[in-house]
Amino acid sequence: MEENATVTDLVHAAAGGDEYAWNSLVERYMPLVKSVIRSYGLSGQNAEDVNQTLWLRLVEHLKDIREPRALPGWITTTTRNECVQLIKNIRRTVPVDVSVEPHAMPQVTEELDEGLLHAERHQVLLQALAELPDHQRTLLVLLVADPPLPYAEISRRLGIRIGSIGPTRARALRRLRECHAVAALAETNTEEIR
Q1: What residue numbers bound the domain in which 23 lies?
Q2: Fewest CB within 10 A of the end CB: N or C in the chain?
Q3: CATH code at 179?
Q4: SS3 for 189?
Q5: Tens of pLDDT along 113-166?
Q6: Which residues lie below 8 Å from residue 18, measured CB to CB, with a gap of 6+?
Q7: Biggest alpha carbon distance in the chain?
């Protein structure tokens, strides 16, 4: 297997039992896994548990992956889910001091939930932006600049007509919504509401 093999080549080879291909996948995507784990504030044994569980899940599902190029999204989503599950399990097993007033505990839980949701949304947005073509990603970044940039300045920087900004933005936002990670997050949020 070549060093510059594509993700598709590596996934197919690893699914066929090629140890070099498997090690190449792990080496290629370990930084992504660690980044997601860090975004949830996990470290030490907890981080290692999520890391090991993620790779175990990938081994279990490697032959089921229909679109190998979507592997980074699958890894990100699965790592996020494992982090959330671990944190829920930790919260369930944390001893509670009976001297603490009952109304004080939910506030800590709500803050933790908000922090987790924020980190999860941030990670999904970064992943989705990375999947956009450069010109669409740059346009969206310029549109949310603080302080806001006038359309004339955005037009000048990108070398496009002002009238093209709105339609290009609409196409970029549509692609963001169709991104695997964003769709998975929306599906998860819908399930939580039910």
Answers
A1: 1-95
A2: C
A3: 1.10.10.10
A4: helix
A5: 666 666 777 777 777 777 888 888 888 888 888 888 899 999 999 999 999 999
A6: 1
A7: 65
